[in-house]
Amino acid sequence: MSVDRWPAPSTTVVTGAAGWLGQALLHRLVADPARQRIRVLVRDNTEADAVKPVLDAAEARSQVVVGDIANPRTVDQLFDGVGADCDVLHTAGVIHPQRIQHLFDVNTTGTEHMVTAAAKAGVRRFTHVSSNSPFGTNPHPDDVFRADEPYHPYMAYGRSKMQGELAVFAAVEGGLDASIVRPPWFYGPFQPPRQTTFFRMVRNGKFPVIAGGHQRRSMVYVDNLVDGLLLAELTPQARGKGYWIADAKPYLVTEIVDTVGRALRDEGFSVKDGALRLPALAARVAEVADGLIQGTGRYQQQLHVLGEMGHTIACDIALARVELGYDPTVDLYEGMRRSIRWCVENGLEL
Amino acid sequence: MSGLTASMPRLDAEVLIIGSGAGGATTAALLAEAGIDVLIVEEGPWVDQGSVTPFSLEQMDQQYRAGGVTVALGLPSIAYTEGRCAGGGTEVNSGLYFRPPVDVIERWSAQHRIRDLDPDALSVIAAEIEQALTVSTVPGRTTPASEILRDGAAALGWQHNEIPRWMAYPPGGDAVTGKRQSMTRTFLPRAFAAGARMIVDCRVDRLHMAGGTGRSAAVTFADGSTGVITFRDVIVCGGAIQSPALLQRSGIHGYIGRTLAVHPTVKLSARFRDEVNVPDDVPVHQVKEFAPDLSFGGSASHPGLVALALTDHWKAFSKSVVQWRQIAIYYAAITSEGRGWVRAIPGLRDPLVTYRLSHRDRQLLRSGLARLTLLMLEADAEEVYPSFRGAPIVRNRADIASMQQAFAVSKASVMTVHLCSSVPMGELPGRSGADSFGRVHGTSNVFVNDASLLPTAPGVNPQATVMAIAIRNARHFISSRSTTDTRSTTDTRNIKGHHER
Amino acid sequence: MRPVPSAPIVGPFADRLLALDLPHLDPARRRDTVEFVTRRVDSLPSVMHLGVLVIATVFRLVVATPLADRFVRLMSHLALPLLGEYVRLVRSLGYAYIWESWPDTQANGASTPEHIR
């Protein structure tokens, strides 16, 4: 398949550089000598320290801006002197916030600042990382989200990400060249410490499986996502479009639990058989409780995750395959083994 | 129409066929052509095609049961319509033709243990039907409302088709020039030519049973007078509501009326820049991207129906009613996991019909309405008016999110025109209403041969499937009868009937 | 069992509802429409017919009082179960008839003058 591609730009701007996706992306960018200047945005000095090792490898090619994306002055600083041969990879986002308002500050307002500044700078391509959450959940387990779907945001996170997308599309109308990637649930190296719970639950036979686990979930290995993100950046045809970027196919929830268990065993861990089998009602109750708590401006991660587990969230990557030439190479088993090894190497307790 | 017979207090037939729609008319034609003395009774009137405006209130008055106002109670209730005229639903439906879906037939055959239900054999029958009804696509232009479905789906990359119809078109003719090849133009004249008789405006109140054998039918004519029709065999083809209700009124209590299946639909109206409304025709395109779970199509959209659709949120929508020429109505239909009941209630003329949607059904209806709305925006709709109470006007994608937030199936105008499965055929002990060829379990000579037999709703417009199954069963009836015809009921009346040919 | 004719029970409410909803609808047209609505109610299937008559009787009693207009307005705004369905039925039938019979009727019931059709 031959798809038209641009060469790497002289300047690459990355937001959310210290995040899960951001770090995986940064490793890839630093390894590419064609990326002459890499300018990253991190939130604070702790994050700056986190990206230091990888940026040290890039030496003089890298520049770090520290500040809050919700602050327009920070964003102006980020775009200062970038020139037109510049691409923006906007990965910054909040998914599990302290307070609900934080979702909108970063995912919506931050994105608005970014597209405004990018348009002013006249960048070549702005690629925005969205989510499945603006589209909610599939109406039944066999349904798959097509390339283009109506918005049906799931909770406050979904609304904040939907408004982020709308800001990007509005900027496209205004002349900005932008594309969007929509990753579902992702996994892989650079995971934040909270994600080790996931492995622990599987190891202890306590991963919540709702109503028999017939739901399907699209997932994306973080390096597959980096592939898709860079393709959405470098493919001229992607202007004004959104793409699902996920592993080759959605997985059944039971398949996920089995595969992760197998990966853990093959990496030498002991795994208890079974899962925490819950009735559909449990997930419904959790979902309602999550909604009520979010209504008060607060957020409870376990409830949120449990509530969502009762649903199918499956997407079709056909458009990314055709228009971007995206071809995910890592599957769940291999991706999980790599994640487990990464956790071990980085001293995370599983 | 020759073949119509006057009412008389006492009548007799070798085979009495109750109902003259997709099931009854085909059965009548095949049996009559095999030399069987057939009498068809039809509750509604004979209305010639073309004598009333299609999809009008006048048509609903004349050719629909209860003027088209019939409801399956539930949360929400589901409005449905039934044809009640010579030719039944075939006179008034959209005319869209789908071959019996092979996967559905295979599933029915396996899950309901239906003997000799062969998809290939049904395809051969379907080919006969296609010829008999001149099933064809529109040679000229389809209507603007139809092209909106096509264009919107194309813009989204969603699979869509022009669905052929049983219409006869003049060469190069546009959609509206089609002449509907309904039962009054096809199988009923065929039945008459083979000697069948028919009485219209004649309602069957009940069958008199002796043990498991039907002896006669008690009927009421249009003038209120009553009569009795004796028969050797009776074939009930009143549709998925009336057939089980008649069996129940007759004291037949097998697995009947407990598994009504429908394709529930939600709808919306969409306003465009140009005039798109064609009052007396429906779109021929359907969007099958999400089939069989979810299908999109176009509805009748005469100004009365546009006004009706806008009443769901009249305060917000009413200003657009004067622009009805720019408005067309569309539906999202689902295959439903839910089931309904048809219960005859002693002392009442009509049965109680209920239907219950499942959780999945509700999710699908919501998602279907949203996806259909998106399609309308992609087809350049200026405004979309979803049909549920208090719905917002949708002008852009962000509005769809608000719409889905506000949506609840309980607020929606849910309706259906496809009713089936209330006397499911098969050999499942205690779970089939009729045997593999439509004989009602527990009876020797009472048959059903209409949409009631389909074990589930087929996921497509069902008329062709109903007809194909009816023809299959009618042939089985004829062949099994000729081999076992040792009963001596073939008396003089029938011989006379045959000689008239 | 002969059905009870609905005109005396349903008619006055349908008339008030249409008069309030569509204040500029010509009274002769309104009468026609009310007649159509009651005819359709008469032909409803048994269970619905009974249900509608029960609810309609309650409405009929209130419509006979000076509170009629306020009541009709209230009922058409509150979407109550069952009671709301009756309002919805009458309105649906009425509007379908009006716009099919006189397609250029405006949202307030006025007929559109010839020159702007």
Q: Topology of this structure?
A:
The complex is a heterotrimer of chains A (350), B (501) and C (117).
Chain A: E1 11-15, H1 20-30, E2 37-42, H2 45-58, E3 62-66, H3 72-79, E4 86-90, H4 100-121, E5 125-129, H5 155-173, E6 178-182, E7 185-187, H6 196-203, E8 208-210, E9 216-217, E10 219-221, H7 222-234, E11 242-244, E12 251-252, H8 253-266, E13 276-278, H9 280-295, H10 301-309, H11 318-324, H12 332-345
Helix pairs in contact in A: 1-2, 1-7, 3-4, 4-5, 8-12, 9-10
Chain B: E1 10-18, H1 22-33, E2 38-41, H2 57-63, E3 70-72, E4 78-80, H3 102-111, H4 119-132, E5 135-136, H5 144-156, E6 160-162, E7 165-168, E8 179-180, H6 187-193, E9 197-199, E10 202-210, E11 213-221, E12 226-236, H7 239-249, E13 261-262, E14 265-271, E15 285-287, E16 294-298, H8 303-310, H9 314-317, E17 327-334, E18 339-343, E19 352-356, H10 359-378, E20 383-386, H11 397-406, E21 415-416, E22 419-420, E23 446-448, H12 463-484, H13 492-499
Parallel strand pairs in B: 1-2, 1-12, 2-9, 4-21, 12-23
Antiparallel strand pairs in B: 3-4, 5-7, 6-15, 7-8, 10-11, 11-12, 13-22, 14-17, 14-20, 16-17, 18-19
Helix pairs in contact in B: 1-6, 1-12, 4-12, 5-10, 10-11
Chain C: H1 7-21, H2 27-42, H3 46-63, H4 68-77, H5 83-101
How does this model look, in words?
The complex is a heterotrimer of chains A (350), B (501) and C (117). By secondary structure, chain A is an alpha/beta fold. Chain A has a domain at 11-188 and 219-247 and 313-330: Rossmann fold. Chain A contains twelve helices and 13 strands. In chain A, the strands form four sheets. In chain A, strands 3-2-1-4-5-6-11 form a seven-stranded parallel sheet, with helices on both faces. Chain A has a two-stranded parallel ribbon with strand order 7-10. A two-stranded parallel sheet of chain A has the order 8-13. In chain A, helix 1 (20-30) crosses helix 7 (222-234). The longest helix of chain A has 22 residues, at 100-121. Chain B is α+β, with helices and mostly antiparallel strands. Chain B has two domains: 10-46 and 85-133 and 181-256 and 420-499, FAD/NAD(P)-binding domain, CATH 3.50.50; 144-177 and 264-416, Cholesterol Oxidase, domain 2 (2-Layer Sandwich). In chain B, strands 1, 2, 9, 10, 11, 12 and 23 form a seven-stranded mixed sheet that branches. A four-stranded antiparallel sheet of chain B has the order 16-17-14-20, with helices on both faces. Chain B has a three-stranded mixed sheet with strand order 3-4-21, with no helix packed on it. In chain B, helix 5 crosses helix 10 (359-378) and helix 10 packs antiparallel against helix 11. The longest helix of chain B has 22 residues, at 463-484. Chain B is globular, with a radius of gyration of 22 Å. Chain C has 117 residues and is mainly alpha-helical. Chain C has one domain (7-101). Helix content of chain C is 67%, strand content 0%. Chain C contains five helices and no strands. Chain C has helices spanning 7-21, 27-42, 46-63, 68-77, 83-101. In chain C, helix 1 packs across helix 3 (46-63), helix 1 (7-21) crosses helix 4 (68-77) and helix 2 (27-42) packs across helix 5. Chains B and C meet through helix 8 of B and helix 3 and helix 5 of C.
